[in-house]
Amino acid sequence: MKKLLYIIIAIVAIVGVLAILRPTKSHASGDKVLVAYFSATGNTRGVAERLAGATGADLFEIVPESLYTADDLDWRNDKSRSSVEMGDKNSRPAVASTVEDMAQYKIVFLGFPIWWGREPSVVDTFLSAYDFSGKTIIPFATSGSTPTTEQADENIRTIVPNADVLTGKRFPSDVSADELKTWAGEWL
C-alpha cells in the first residue's frame, strides 16, 4: 500500500511539473506570436482580432498619439494629415502605446490598411521603435482597391532589414476566422 501511495505522489508531482513547464501559447513552431495592427476606421481591427483569436496570438493595437479624424483621412485633400504624412517617406507620427517585452515574440503578424499603395506612416513609426532582428514579420492588409501588399513589403524590409519580412496578403474586411487560421497556419 505504501508503494502505491509513493507511485501516486510521484505521478502527481510529474504532472504538476509538466503543467508548469508547458508554454501558455500552443503553436506548432513553439514561438510566441504577436498580431500588431493599425486601424483608422475599424476594418483592419476586425481582421486582426479574428486572426489573433483564431491563432491564440497576443494582440496589440498601434495607436497614434493623435487619432485620425475624418478630415485627416480625406485622401482627396492634398493638405489632409494622411496626405501630408504619406507624401513624406520619412514621416514618423508619434505612437501612444508600446509593446511590453517585444523580445519575447518571434513571429509578428503586422496589419494595416493600405494607404497610397503602402503601409501608413504610423506603422513605420512602430517598426522603427523595436529591434526586429531574427524575427519573422508577416504583413496583412485591408484595402478597397489595392490588390497586393508588394510596395508595403518592400518598405518594411527597408525599415527592418534584420527581420525576415515575408510576402504579405491583402484581405477583405469580412474575411473569416477559418480562412485567417488556414493562412497563418503556414507559419505556426
Count of helical regions:
6
Shape: globular
For the record, what is the CATH homologous superfamily label?
A: Flavodoxin domain
Mean pLDDT equals 82
* Beta-strand residue fraction: 5-15%
- Beta strands, count: 6
- SSE string: HEHEHEHEHEEH
Q: Kindly report the CATH topology.
A: Rossmann fold
Show unreliable segments.
4-27
Biggest beta sheet attributes: 6 strands, parallel
Q: What is the name of the CATH class?
A: Alpha Beta
- How much is the radius of gyration in Å? 20 Å
Decide which structural class fits the backbone.
alpha/beta
Could you please describe the fold and organization of this structure?
By secondary structure, this protein is an alpha/beta fold. The chain has a single domain (27-184), classed as Flavodoxin domain (Rossmann fold). The chain has helices at 2-21, 43-55, 81-86, 121-128, 150-159, 177-184; strands spanning 33-37, 58-61, 107-113, 136-142, 164-165, 169-171. Strands 1, 2, 3, 4, 5 and 6 form a 6-stranded parallel β-sheet that branches.
